[in-house]
Amino acid sequence: MNLLTVADLNNEEIDNLIERASALKERHRKGIPHTPLRGKTLGLIFEKSSTRTRVSFEVAMHHLGGNAVFISGKDSQIGRGEPIKDTSRVMSRYVDGIVIRTFGHEIIEEYARYSAVPVVNGLTDTHHPCQVLADVLTVVEKKGFYKGLKFCWIGDGNNMANSWIEAAMRLGFDLTLACPKGYAPDNAFLKKAKAEGASNIRVTENVEEAAKDADVLNTDVWASMGQEEESERRRGDFKGFQINSDVLKLAKKDAIVLHCLPAHRGEEISDEVMEGAHSAVWDEAENRLHIQKAILEWLLAEGGR
Predict the structure, then answer these.
(1) Which of 270, 266, 232 is closest to 249 using CA atoms?
(2) Integer Cα distance of 152 and 168 in angstroms
């Protein structure tokens, strides 16, 4: 089995991963060893730079008793044009699982097609499933549940927004996405959600409408990796699409604020909110480690859990 998108999972599988990540987090805090992946090796193939994804997966494997091998595109034969299917077949002979962080989603799909071991999406241009699972874990920690909550996304209809749409489709919580004109999520994701009966997802260009009475406020950078040349134009297009104290006042009094990081303070989120009492950003970042552990245990341990 692979984990390429949130939609690859059903409701029960997501709940199980959240529950297991929480248990593994508590076990780690108590200093109780848990090494079900002893003798296992994880390959990390990264064509995009990373801090949290790389470190969390490497540390996760260490905590679980295994090892991780990091490969960057520029330092391997991948950067010299070796076919994906060749790399995938060879890596499958060396490692027990592969995490890939790349550009087009079709790249990771091809890796998965030719891989004999589980493939996990560490990020593509259209999906970021591990991050959203960590975010749901954070919400459950802070709120105790996700059902019946109103989630608000403010900013670009990017890979994070797409994965949030899939999470709402699977888990049934209310999701409103406020995106500037021309930056809405890919309509294919919205059509898929509607086709599966999800009536809980809305897209608007009005930040106030999205933030009003929200339980969870969420955002990401205005220009993602690979869009640096668009940064100046996007700053103008995204004016007003910032989570700041005024927007926070529209949400519920106990609302939490999420950001997948890295953040451009003063653009998509104000420094005041980032450092404020409503911010769950640092717990969210830590939870990448714990959800990664749950995912790796599930996919790589003998007999799963």
Answers:
(1) 270
(2) 11
- The total domain count for the chain is 2
Active site residue 152: no
- pTM, 2 dp: 0.96
101 carries an active-site annotation: yes
Amino acid of residue 67: N
What residue type is 52 in one-letter code? R
Is 225 inside a domain boundary?
A: yes
Distance, C-alpha 218 to centroid of its chain = 12
Told to judge if 127 belongs to the known catalytic residues of this protein, a careful annotator would answer no
**Cβ-Cβ contacts under 8 Å for 271 (sequence gap 6 or more):** 265
Q: Is 220 a catalytic residue?
A: yes
Residue 39 has pLDDT above 50, yes or no: yes
Tens-digit pLDDT profile for residues 44-76: 999 999 999 999 999 999 999 999 999 997 888
Is the Cβ–Cβ distance between 77 and 104 less than 8 Å? no
> Catalytic: 128?
yes
CATH number, position 228: 3.40.50.1370
Q: Which domain holds residue 197?
A: 131-282
Active site residue: 96, 125, 156, 220, which one?
220
